[in-house]
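Hey, quick one: can you model this chain's 3D structure?
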Amino acid sequence: MDTSGRSSGIRNGRMSPSRIDGPAASSDHVPVSTQGLTMDSRIRFARHEDLPGVQRLYKALRPSDPEFPPPQAEAQWSHVLDQPHIRIVVAEQEGLLAATCMLALIANFGSGGRPIGLIEHVITLPRFRGKGLAAAVMRFALDCAWTHECCKVMLLSGAQRDGAHRLYESLGFRGDVERGFVVKPAEPVTPVKEGRRFDGTRPGHADPSRAR
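Sure thing. Here's the predicted structure for all 212 residues.
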């Protein structure tokens, strides 16, 4: 993968607090020409105009997810893209967004202050599967995580998804180092209410540290 124009995001040995930089931080597209990908494949960070393509990808993975009304979808997409510690990575092929994954960096008081990387929502459209696109977006995300000196990168995967597990293992992930556990809310998942996005406080409680 061509990583020319790469910006490290590291300042004086510490992660830049203002943004995630990565292999495409200074270039609009990164051409991919390995592992059977075509020369028109591009791996990059998602932009605001990518909302319809990303919605199509998420629908392929999570068809039962509640749908946002259009204005709320645009607001939530902007909210996600505006987060300095989150990036959505996408793969373009044949003029479509064909694959994606999300990288989040979690600030960390352990491991010498090195952040923890989390990869979620690894998705490829059915017609593009088997072409190496999922591996390509994940390599892009991993390169970004190591650029920011992450102490580790984690992901969760459905227990029965053997094919996905083989992909993750081929990229260096191991399922025998730590064990993941998941708890989900008892009530059905519905779209987040307008104005109720996560801000680090409990609903109905002010953060006393921010009152000073």
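One thing worth noting: The chain has four helices and eight strands.
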